[in-house]
Write a structure and sequence with these properties.
Radius of gyration: 19 Å
Strand content: 15-25%
Mean pLDDT: 95
Shape: globular
CATH topology of the largest domain: Uridine Diphospho-n-acetylenolpyruvylglucosamine Reductase, domain 3
Distance between the termini: 32 Å
Structural class: alpha+beta
Bound molecules: flavin-adenine dinucleotide
Helix content: 10-25%
CATH class of the largest domain: Alpha Beta
Largest sheet: 5 strands, antiparallel
């Protein structure tokens, strides 16, 4: 599909390196063509080397977390897709009311940890299947709150291979996705003390409400459209008569019209046709 990249650049890279890896294997939608290069560093040094290789070959770098908020084109992605895979990228550390979490840590695990620490502020992440890196990059959350409310600092790998600490006041949450100066390595949250029992109850309550309203167990990428001011996207889609509308293997969820589901075998093209129709 693409001209073969010189293997000598990759032979010393530690971690998984695959050429033309189908990204449908790495997204919750199970849709998407191949990545020109797919790289899973285990350690920070591997990541730095991988980014050097990408730079030497002029490959654009795309970070991928759990792949729960992306639609990958059927033609695939040119460049290097980097998925932080090693445990060293998924550590959690607590100091008083501060919790520092690696970018690869899953949100359900972060939430469980913060509850066990008796620290409140992240319950709004209940039911969101991503990683810390992806959640910070997209400012994940919803009507119960957003991750930005408790985020205090970010660790970013800069172009020189050094970790740069970005303080809360320096983070622009309205920025376009991908506009950060490098991969997010960790995030630090400032939380409030609370009873673990109370936090567990609150989290369960949010989860129960989400399960009732959203097709959480289907292949999706969560809500597709942002809510217009004063409106709810799902309601507008339902009112337009598009509930259940399908194209190829993709359909608009009858349960929550802002979710587009892959019933199996859907292409990105099918998904995008539905997106266009809704627009
Ligand atoms: C069933 C379901 C329910 C969902 N519910 C919600 C919800 O309630 N609220 C909500 O906000 N979202 C929701 N989502 C969407 C998604 O789970 C979140 O946006 C999640 O935070 C994305 O994390 P991820 O690791 O999957 O990121 P990905 O989808 O892998 O990536 C998303 C973006 O983040 C960037 N990124 C990922 N990791 C890094 C990194 N280390 N450094 C820099 N950039 C990075 C990627 O390049 C990409 O631009 C839902 C999705 C599903 C499937």
């Amino acid at each position: 599909m693409w001209t073969k990249l010189p293997e000598k650049y990759f032979k010393d890279l530690k971690g998984k390196v695959e050429f033309e890896e189908p990204l449908s294997r790495h997204t919750t939608l199970k849709i998407g063509g191949p990545a020109e290069v797919y790289f899973e560093p285990q350690e920070m040094q591997d990541l730095i080397r991988g980014l050097d290789v990408a730079s030497a070959l002029g490959l654009q770098v795309h970070l991928l977390g759990r792949g729960s908020n992306v639609l990958v084109r059927d033609e695939g992605v040119r460049g290097m897709v980097v998925h932080l895979a090693g445990r060293s990228f998924a550590r959690v550390k607590r100091e008083g009311a501060r919790v520092s979490a690696g970018a690869a840590l899953s949100l359900p695990r972060l939430l469980r940890k913060s509850i066990s620490f008796g620290l409140a502020g992240l319950e709004c992440l209940a039911g969101i299947p991503g990683t810390v890196g992806g959640a910070v990059a997209t400012n994940a959350g919803g009507r119960w709150g957003r991750i930005s409310s408790s985020l205090d600092a970010l660790g970013i790998l800069n172009k020189g291979g050094e970790v740069h600490r970005l303080e809360r006041t320096e983070i622009d949450f309205s920025r376009r996705e991908g506009a950060l100066p490098g991969p997010i390595l960790w995030a630090e949250f400032l939380l409030d003390g609370a009873e673990p029992g109370f936090l567990l109850e609150r989290t369960q309550e949010i989860l129960t409400q989400k399960k009732k309203a959203q097709p959480l167990t289907r292949r999706s990428a969560g809500s597709v459209f942002k809510n217009p001011p004063g409106e709810e996207a799902w309601r507008l889609i339902a009112e337009a008569g598009l509930r259940g509308r399908s194209c190829g293997g993709a359909y608009i969820s009858p349960k929550h019209c802002n979710f587009i589901i892959n019933r199996g075998g859907a292409k990105a093209k099918d998904f995008l046709i539905l997106v266009d129709e809704v627009r």
